[in-house]
Amino acid sequence: MARIYLGRAETDLGGERLLVIKRILPILSDNTEFSRLLVDEAKLAARLSHGNIVQVLDLGRHDGELYIAMEYVEGFDLRELLRRCAKEQIGLPLDFSLLIVSEVLRALDYAHKKRDETGQPLGIVHRDVSPSNVLLSFEGEVKICDFGIARAAGVGGELSPEAIRGKAAYMSPEAASGEALDGRSDLFSCGIILWELLSGQRLYRAPEGQAVALETAIRAEIRPLPAGDYPDEERLRSIVNQALARQPAQRHASAREMLKELDGYVTQNKLAASPLRLGEWLTRHFATDIVDLRREREVLAKQLASAELGPYASSYLHAELPGPPSLQAPALDIPRLSPLPPSLARTMERSSGAPERTQSLLLTIAVALLLALGALTLYLLR
Ligand SMILES: Nc1ncnc2c1ncn2[C@@H]1O[C@H](COP(=O)(O)OP(=O)(O)O)[C@@H](O)[C@H]1O
Ligand SMILES: [Mg+2]
């Protein structure tokens, strides 16, 4: 659907920051129905401002192509973290699993309840709550991205069946069957993530090398959570089962309700974790990966700074890593972060600098003239 780029934005006074640009594929940018919906959804997403949501910074069209600029989160996405854990045979501790899902729920609670200036609910639903859209910064922050974008993807009709199926593993039954849905659909997806983090397995199994079929998501046959070493197991199971109820009416009524349940469980069982500790855990277990990623990012950032924007087929953030099949997500062949093409890099540089530059030039000329005049007067006086 899109290509992801690392970009650099500059301000008039020389401030700069790295950001991520999602360029929508031309075939989709040209589809008016898709573009209209995507623009509508991205506009809604741009209104969201919350610590657990990747901030949308800009939405625009360049040479006919739609793009969304957003905050850059330096870290792993959850799918990538699980792959790395599987490869290194590191278990994700229970308290961190619960922290990640709680932070996602915090974001959903805020977004689902968001109202416009006149107090009307905006009706925002994420629609694609899945591990690849949960970003974990090396500081331990948890942020979700791609709010509402799946809606456009579903309606555009231009996505290949594989691309749609690639998303089925975390879809609620109502989303998979194309029915009307509300925030409780996102809770189901959260339930799948929770189920998988707790069990270390995929909930829906697909034949080797294939993505989960849409029909699997529609059937929503939920296997019981495998027995594990969880404290107060019944309580945890009941939270997971309620989130994964087939009928939305039987799930938690809202993200806040589910969050409160989880929070109660966490407090009762002394499983509270903080982003600080998650960040430390990531740094401890993936120190070399982090150093490698940072080094690669620095190279990219330098290339961007010196405008050497040659094509860079980067595996940045996303080296495909083998892991036990249980944790292996179906591979998606989406190109990963690479530098921004020069045309878009220019788009991101603010063009409103011109008047200020002219002003400072005039000021310099005026000061120079005054100095020359002063020198001339001194000379004549002598
Ligand atoms: N704002 C961001 N900051 C850092 N990494 C990002 C950001 N947005 C996307 N990514 C990375 O790019 C990957 C691909 O994103 P995306 O095109 O949305 O594909 P997917 O369908 O796999 O979510 C994400 O899984 C994530 O690792
Ligand atoms: Mg995504």
Characterization of this structure:
With 382 residues, this protein is an alpha+beta fold. The protein is built from 15 helices and 8 strands. The chain has 2 domains: 2-280, Transferase(Phosphotransferase) domain 1 (Transferase(Phosphotransferase), domain 1, Orthogonal Bundle), CATH 1.10.510.10; 348-376. A hairpin with a 5-residue loop joins strand 1 and strand 2. It is elongated and about 100 Å long. Residues 308-358 have low confidence and may be disordered. A 5-stranded mixed β-sheet has the order 3-4-2-1-8, with helices on both faces. It has helices at 26-29, 32-46, 78-88, 94-113, 149-156, 161-165, 173-176, 183-199, 214-219, 233-243, 255-268, 275-285, 287-305, 342-348, 354-381, and strands at residues 2-10, 16-24, 56-62, 65-71, 75-77, 134-137, 142-144, 338-339. It is 47% helix and 12% strand. Residues 2, 4, 20, 54, 70-73, 77, 132-133, 135, 145-146, 317, 332, 334, 336 line the site of adenosine-5'-diphosphate (ADP).
